[in-house]
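Q: I have 427 residues here and want to know how they pack in 3D. Can you give me a structure?
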Amino acid sequence: MPGRHVTDQQMRLFMTLRQTHSTRVAAAKAGISQATGYRLQADPTLPSQKKTPRSRRRPDPLADIFDTEVVPLLRSSPGIRPVAVYEELLRRHPDLGTGIRRTLERRMRAWKAEHGPEQEVIFRQVHTPGKMGLSDFTAMGKLGVTVAGEPLDHRLYHFRFKNLDKSAQQDITDRFDALCGHYGMTPTRNNKGIAHENGSIESPNGHLKRAIEDALVMRGSRDFEDLIAYRRFIDEIVGRINARNAKRIDMERASLGPLPARRTTDYEEVTLRVTSSGGFTLRKVFYTVPSRLIGHQLRVRLYDNRLELFLGGSTLALMGLVYRDQLFPRRAFGDMFAVLLEQTGEKAACRMTVDLLALAHDRGCEAELAAQIEEDLRQNRPPDMAVLRALFAPSDEALPQVEVKMADLSSYDQLVSSAASAEEVAA
């Protein structure tokens, strides 16, 4: 018909009918004109195959950088994710704009389909919000991270949510059982050798480690100045991941109960005796303490990143610890400790430093307090704990205004009379 394009279906129908009918009849039954029928007989190419591929409507924003910058990354690190490459390109070329993301993802997907490695086959699972938290330790040694040039053999504790599975509840350590009991959780364990159960945490572990690997590649170095710098690096990556999963986390949060009134114990307590060598061995590491403690029995609280020593009920300053300096969250704390040792002596310096560390922890003001300590060091003055506590005290505006209204004493007479009436009715 005039003004209408012939479809592939019409042409196939016409060519089929043409085998048993004349051109005029076949064209009429196919819904096309006789002239179109003769034209189709002369050129049997389907209409869809005659269309010219659509050319680009705008300049290719990746024309000058995909082969020179992106492809080398894909060849050296085949598992790198598009979002990591996208963020890196924006850092290198701010003028590209955020609109290149979809173009980059399609281009990388096409390149990997032709040149990339085989992909992992994953069987999806259904996860119900608020049912169960699944956790696991994942080894990070293969990433080659070093701290001050020394290899860091470490693991990350990864917590995920998963659908409830009433599997075996045996072989659970006492401490983990106590942890779950404190937070009102029911501990379970996936069955050994059951791949689909283990995959619920192994797959996220893989995604997390690939994100860290991407960030290390972009950073250009796997060595960190100290453990604190590496912790901040990991915190930043995990923060980005959690921000992308904010909606799913909010779904989980809506199904969760309130937290307990206090934190659970996050340390292991061990009792040790100081030997004649002036120290003690804990987890195959030798720690030194002042010689006056030789023969005394100490209680040691072992945290993931520090030790706390107690002689009876008194806290001991960790003057002689081999890893004492690692207790300072920022350099300013250590510098102030060294100055106090010279100016006030060991006992006063330890007491002041413990007060500063406690203030930083309790008020969550580590960075701000460090800046104040640096100012004190520049002014060559000792910290004033009273001033610092007032400076970092909770804001009055943040405290709720509570209005207490006293009850009318006559209301108690009404309660007594009501209770007496109820007893008479019961009798």
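Q: Anything worth noting?
A: Confidence is low (pLDDT under 50) at residues 162-172. The first strand starts at residue 132 and ends at 139.
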